[in-house]
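Please decode residue identities from the backbone states below.
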């Protein structure tokens, strides 16, 4: 087991990539806190994983709200006796062309996808420092690396995640904490299901592997970065996109 007895918080774990990661981490022996805004779905998913024999719990959180994040982190640390791993995976889209993008939709995406990553990381940090070790993994995107039509807000936030990751990798490396990002390509989840079929086909045609990704493709990347196998990997952006970025 690659994460035996490690305590992992995964945000956005009620769906998609976060849910796949929760199951992957639990299967590898981790105690997993599924942290999500959607309490009904989150509780349901946690119950399903518990029924498979995994050690998981659901914690309601809005990553864009600092007091909600502080409370979630405090409860996780109390229930599982500390924290070893944080996966900053929660994210949203509010796609629109620049000329139509509202200030509200710009701010909303920044507050969840960028400020949310800052909130969770800062709140978890004292627990990692206490352990003298830890792994922080944040989810960027191919859109944050090379931009995307209709994603001003999202690309800005995901590029910002890369900037924070590299700063934290420099700041926290000597404290025994590895900080990395994963930049997924187009992966089949509820998020991509909203993209018009024609555009999705266009995205697929750009992938050398000739297919969209599966959530488990990303869960496996999170797992690698969370495991001891990645102890000398720090400040990297791992592209898991079938070869779109090269
Ligand atoms: N490349 C080039 N041109 C594009 C384009 C693209 N990817 N997408 C749209 N356009 C063009 C259209 O062809 C259209 O051109 P004309 O005016 O000449 O006809 C123009 O831009 C306007 O497009 P729409 O008619 O679609 O405009 P709209 O206002 O109705 O919708 C939109 C705009 C909401 C951005 C819609 O196009 C859309 O949903 N696009 C998909 C955006 C996208 O890729 N999102 C990724 C979501 S998944 C994700 O975010 C995960 C991740 O990290 C990768
Ligand atoms: P999803 O929409 O399937 O799941 C996102 C989860 O985040 C949901 O359960 C939702 O309730 C939760 N969430 C939303 N706002 C929240 C908040 N304020 N606080 C706490 N939880 C919140 O999305 P998906 O596809 O699983 O995406 C996961 C991450 O991967 C996101 O950061 C996304 O931007 C990123 N990503 C996804 C790609 C894809 O193609 N699906 C590609 C690149 C990046």
């Amino acid at each position: 087991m690659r994460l035996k007895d490690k305590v992992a918080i995964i945000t956005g774990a009620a769906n998609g990539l976060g849910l796949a990661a929760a199951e992957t981490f639990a299967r590898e022996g981790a105690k997993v806190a599924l942290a999500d805004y959607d309490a009904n779905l989150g509780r349901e998913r946690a119950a399903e994983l518990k029924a498979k024999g995994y050690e998981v719990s659901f914690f309601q959180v809005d990553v864009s709200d600092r007091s909600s994040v502080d409370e979630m982190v405090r409860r996780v640390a109390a229930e599982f006796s500390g924290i070893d791993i944080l996966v900053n995976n929660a994210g949203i889209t509010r796609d629109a062309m620049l000329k139509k993008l509202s200030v509200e939709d710009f701010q909303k995406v920044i507050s969840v996808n960028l400020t949310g990553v800052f909130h969770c990381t800062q709140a978890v940090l004292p627990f990692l420092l206490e352990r003298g070790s830890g792994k922080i993994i944040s989810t960027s995107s191919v859109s944050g690396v090379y931009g995307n039509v209709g994603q001003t807000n999202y690309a800005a936030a995901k590029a910002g995640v890369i900037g924070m990751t590299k700063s934290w990798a420099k700041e926290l490396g000597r404290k025994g904490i590895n900080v990395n990002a994963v930049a997924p390509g187009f992966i089949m989840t509820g998020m991509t299901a909203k993209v018009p079929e024609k555009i999705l086909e266009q995205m697929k045609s750009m992938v050398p592997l000739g297919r969209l990704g599966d959530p488990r493709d990303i869960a496996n990347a999170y797992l690698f970065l969370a495991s001891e196998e990645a102890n000398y990997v720090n400040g990297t952006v791992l592209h898991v996109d079938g070869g779109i970025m090269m």
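Observation: The pocket of NAI (ligand 2) is lined by residues 11-12, 14-18, 36-38, 61-64, 89-92, 112, 116, 139, 141, 184, 186-187, 189-192 (CB under 6 Å).
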